[in-house]
Model the fold of this input.
Amino acid sequence: MAPSTTSGGLVARVRPSCAALVAHEDSSVRVNAEKVHAFVEELDWTQFGELTVPMRFPLNFRTQQDEINFLSASCGFRLSDSFASLQYKRASICIDQLMFGLLGMYISVPKLNARFMQGLSLDLVANYFSIPLERDEELSPGIYIAKPILNECGQKLVEREMEDFGAFVLANLSSSGSGDEEEKQGGSSAVHLVQQLVTTFPAFDDHRECRGEKVYFLKRAQLAVESIYRRFKYDAELEARINRGEELPAGQQECELRAAGIVACDQIVAESKGRLSTLDVSFYLWRVGKEERFRGLERHATRDTFFY
Done:
């Protein structure tokens, strides 16, 4: 998917584009206001506090750039939950194993940099993440999507003469931006960094064309910046498809689900009346979904996309 272009900031397009899609009269997905209220009222605040603490990795980083590079790269190396759930059920591969693969990659290579990503082979990706290549593509689809995207990220960094993702992030954090005064003041902001990630790397350009309009999610770019800085209701047929574990092809319903997730999170934050922040809810939902009590719940799966 080619980089998105728009006259306004890309991040500012996420909420309104998602809200407009979910509000469409023919949308298959609706956000249940009662469930939003129940989510906030029934929230386990002890668990919430535990799951919103920033993740710490058992690594000794050589420099600040090195650590920023690892955090940024992890958002690109992380295979999507739809791949992980399939592999977890059919090939004993779980999300923790994928993270261990990333840690092993960091420890074993001289430098997790642009040149390394540019030259990553399918064999190396499969080896680091312990995904057997002798199994067919249906059993390990993630590596067939991840490998060329990792190569492309490395290529983009090389083209810009950036040593690694860490160098790219630091260069954009120190940038004063350009244009009007507001842009200059926001040059070192999270919004600016998300914008640069999205417009530079197709792997971070997470948007879809739906109902003739662009709908923006930008999950990976925002996750990368969050890591550095710090339930919906569907129609019965759609819910049944998800619960049966059917793949949901890229398209309108899948786009509506993701848009409704953003709208629902906004409503949760509003319902909390200041007790929750968007950042906290993001980290909490991502991590609580991996808790044992939620493992049995089906997630909608769209396996021909890299963005989630």
In short: The first helix runs from residue 11 to 23. The first strand starts at residue 29 and ends at 31. Residues 19-54+230-308 form one domain.
